[in-house]
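[recover] target loaded
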């Protein structure tokens, strides 16, 4: 199974679990043609999750930047996994928010999918990079 598939299946499972904890009736499907999974909320609203939703590109961008940038290996060993975990959590929150949005206010889904959540996730990665540069990269003025 390829990395995108594993990430999407696991994020779909976690998203479904959290939505159930929030009191929603949730149905998840996997192996959907043209997509990798689907979450249906309250038997009315569905979100298809494809390979572009896995977050893999975001993980690679973040980790690649930290790995190639100056800084002690001992800090990279904990900073990269911590940052990847944060990006993963944000991606799961994004999936949950989008399915709730489709259920409660579907007219806002496209805008939030294309702009709001992209801004939030890339903004978080940017803030992590700034934190790295200012605190761990050895690039600060002395």
């Amino acid at each position: 199974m390829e990395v995108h598939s594993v990430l999407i299946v696991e994020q779909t499972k976690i998203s479904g679990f959290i939505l159930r904890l929030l009191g929603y009736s949730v149905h998840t499907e996997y192996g959907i043609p043209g997509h990798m999974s689907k979450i249906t909320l309250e038997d009315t609203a569905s979100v298809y999750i494809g390979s572009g939703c896995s977050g893999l590109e975001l993980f690679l961008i973040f980790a690649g930047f930290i790995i190639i940038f100056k800084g002690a290996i001992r800090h990279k060993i904990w900073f990269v996994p911590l940052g990847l975990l944060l990006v993963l959590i944000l991606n799961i929150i994004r999936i949950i928010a989008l399915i709730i949005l489709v259920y409660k206010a579907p007219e806002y889904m496209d805008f939030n999918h294309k702009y709001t959540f992209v801004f939030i996730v890339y903004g978080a990665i940017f803030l992590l990079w700034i934190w790295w540069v200012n605190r761990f990269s050895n690039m600060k003025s002395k």
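[recover] notes: The chain has one domain: 3-135.
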